[in-house]
Amino acid sequence: MSDGRLPRHRRRWLGWTIGTLAVLLLIAMGWVTVRGIGAAEALQAVSDDTADLKAAVAAQDLEGAEKIADRIAGHAAEAADLTSDPVWRGFEFVPWVGANFTAVREIAWIADTVASDALTPVLDAADELDLADLGFSGTTIDLAPFAAAAEPLGRADATLSDALAKAREIDAGATLPPLEEAVGQVRDSVDEAATLVGTLHGASVLLPSMLGADGPRSYVVAMQNNAEVRSSGGIIGALALITADRGSIRIVRNASTADFPPLEAPLEVSEPNVALFEEQPGRYLQNLTSIPQFTEAAPLIATRWTQQFGGTVDGVVAVDTVVAQHLVAATGPVTFGPFTADGDNILGILLSEIYSTIPDAATQDAVFAQASSALLAAAFSSGQTQALLGALSESSDEGRIRIWSAHEDEQARLATTSLSGALPTDDDSATWVGALFNDTTGGKMDYYADAAFTVATGVCAGEPTTRLEATWTNDAPADAATALPEYVTAAGWYGVPPGETRTLVALYGPQGATPVRIDRDGAEEQVQTAVIDGRTVLQHSVELAPGESTTITVDFVGTGTGERLTEVAHTPLIREPDVTRESIDCGS
Fold first, then answer.
1. Secondary structure letter of residue 445 according to DSSP
2. Which residues of 356-366 are buried (b: 16+ CB within 10 A; e: fewer)?
3. Whole-angstrom Cα distance, residue 154 to residue 198?
């Protein structure tokens, strides 16, 4: 009669099998441990050498930079090799720890790809472009080196774009805290490099023609004032016409919004924007930047200019006041009117102090024009070209510079960059939600405004869901009604009590998504709706006294919702809003 045990020979076979598997597992663990240590050391060497590479490029030591780049490529290739064998890949499927192995392998792949396919083209471009001055001489730019650098920069740009997409796909939240921090650092570094190289590549392709290599060009520059917020940054406060001829740039006319009276017959604006802003953009030049798509707003700005002054406009550039802060930090202090501005005080001057110091609106306009001229002159004469390039790159990355060209081939290329001023497009690398802010107070109270966002994704009631919360705050002093100039508070001219603010706050979801829950501070209220580029936009009118805030919440379901990689786009504000990411809480 059997006692239920396996026969001795089968027990022996099973014991051998388990023992063999245990030994193999121990060997595999030792294998990946040794290779993991080697990979970590190689990646640390990449990080150390990258700092040396930056210093060499900054010093224009291209020969030294090439040697360092070779070292980086060797270390990166070693890290990629150590983390790509079948044993390592097998550990990626182990529960709880597999995500860490995957993240290390993907970081190594990114380092190897960037080192082998981006560093060399960038150094080739640096050999063409003198990074010490980028061809600047006074108000003239030598355009020939940009054309020569276009091809290598294009290769590097493509590589970095792929690397950035890969970095965004890494599930950092599933890794151990030290590795999660490392993934964040890799993303930030690749993002910074991709932005800078992308900017340089775009410049190398577009600058020769746009700066008059094939004939003179004329551009309208619109300065946006963030103290009175609009979708693309701020109300248009001043304008200038600049000309470019074979790289030589000069300002030929300054103008203020007083030169553009309201139109009796408004310009044609698309139906979604009429739904949100009525005829205001079509009638008032100041409000054209309420239109969130610069591809629509810019031609209308050009039309208003030619209606008033005649001539031909080859393109429009819009910048906001924070760009001035970035530029002054790079160029050094500038003087205009009674002010001397540096990186610390220029926002306070342009967005607040000027109104209390100079009560006359016409004089304010004159000082704003002086400020724009002083900033442009400083940019060309400072000699701090690399710092200037960094300031422009940072401004572009924050959405504070928008460019439109009347020439179709140039506009087609601009449309693929952050300079286009278009709403973001959902793709495999990220899904986007966002917010647009437009002041209807009629003053300059948004110097005191702040925003914060929370985006949560997950599944609610069995459906993938994305929730966007936007909090808008009036941080003006309690005595704003009497302490601030009437030009700032608007003195009730448009029906808003002095010191209070009235703002149109519009939230939009992923392309093709449907809103299923809309509330403000937990209660439903009437909203304006429109569909722009496939995105449902829901707009509240919000009125706040000093110290008050409000939170608007929208849940979206359908296409693109519930995606972990959901990014938040928003109107460029004076201060960068806090963005919090959470998992969806269906009970709230």
1. G
2. eebeeeeebbb
3. 8
Q: Which domains does the chain have, with CATH numbers?
A: 8-210 (no CATH), 217-414 (3.40.630), 423-583 (no CATH)
Tokens (6 digits) for 432: 């986007």
Distance CA 383, CA 331 (A): 8
Q: What are the φ/ψ torsions at residue 265 (nearest 5 degrees)?
A: -105, 110
Of 400, 457, 432, nearest in space to 569 by CA: 432
Is 322:349 a contact under the CB 8 Å cutoff? no
- Label residue 446 exposed, middle or buried (CB < 10 Å: 0-12, 13-18, 19+): buried
CA distances, 409 to each of 55, 184, 201, 246, 454 (Å):
37, 37, 16, 19, 39
Q: Where are the alpha helices (DSSP H) in 316-423?
A: 321-331, 346-348, 354-357, 361-381, 385-397, 408-414
> Which contiguous run of DSSP H or E holds residue 78?
helix 62-82
577: helix, coil or strand? coil
At 538 the three-state DSSP class reads strand
pTM: 0.79
What gap in Å lies between CA 277 and CA 506, rounded to an integer? 11
One digit per residue, the tens of pLDDT, for the chain of length 588 reads: 445 544 544 445 444 444 444 444 554 555 566 666 776 787 777 777 777 776 776 666 767 778 877 887 887 788 788 888 887 788 778 787 778 778 788 888 888 888 788 777 777 777 666 655 555 556 677 777 777 778 888 888 888 888 888 888 888 777 777 677 777 777 777 777 777 777 777 777 888 888 888 899 999 999 999 999 999 999 998 899 999 998 888 889 988 888 999 999 999 999 999 999 999 999 999 999 999 999 999 999 999 999 999 999 999 999 999 999 999 998 889 999 999 999 999 999 999 999 989 988 888 888 888 888 888 778 777 666 667 777 887 888 889 999 999 999 999 988 888 889 999 999 877 899 999 999 999 999 999 999 999 999 999 888 999 999 999 999 999 999 999 999 999 999 999 999 999 999 999 999 999 999 999 999 988 899 999 999 999 999 999 999 999 999 999 999 999 887 899 999 999 999 999 999 987 765
For residue 156, count CB atoms less than 10 angstroms from its CB and return exposed for 0-12, middle for 13-18, buried for 19 or more.
buried
Q: What share of the chain is helix, strand, coil (3-state, %, to 5)?
A: 50, 25, 25
Q: Which string of DSSP letters, residue by residue, matches 101-141?
A: HHHHHHHHHHHHHHHHHTHHHHHHHHHHS-TTTTTEETTEE
- What whole-number distance in Å separates Cα of residue 202 and Cα of residue 482? 49
Residue type, 515: P
